[in-house]
Amino acid sequence: MNTLEITKMSLVAKMQAMDAIWGSLIHDNLDVKSPKERGLTLRYRKWL
């Protein structure tokens, strides 16, 4: 799927595709580190 195909999709179809992708990623055993900025944001939010 490319960007042109995505722009032609309805909002509902785009949301369904995103949901399917996130659902797939949940089950993948990925060893991905969060960016340093993400950790700083989380610590800041806990501080609030």
Molecular structure report:
The structure is a single chain. With 48 residues, the protein is mainly alpha-helical. The protein has a domain of 28 residues. The chain is built from 3 helices and no strands. The chain is elongated, with a radius of gyration of 16 Å. It starts with a helix and ends with a helix. The relative contact order is 0.08. The mean pLDDT is 82.
Gyration radius (Cα, Å) is 16 Å
Biggest sheet, in brief? none
Helix residue percentage = over 70%
Given as residue ranges, the uncertain stretches (5+ residues, pLDDT < 50) are: none
SS elements, strand count: 0
Q: What fraction strand?
A: under 5%
Count every helix, treating DSSP H or I runs of 4 or more residues as helices.
Answer: 3
Q: How far apart lie the N and C ends?
A: 41 Å
Structural class: mainly alpha
Order of helical and strand elements:
HHH
Mean pLDDT: 82
Strand-helix topology:
Layout: H1 3-7, H2 11-27, H3 36-47
Short account of what is shown:
The protein has helices at residues 3-7, 11-27, 36-47. The chain is mainly α. The protein has a domain at 1-28.
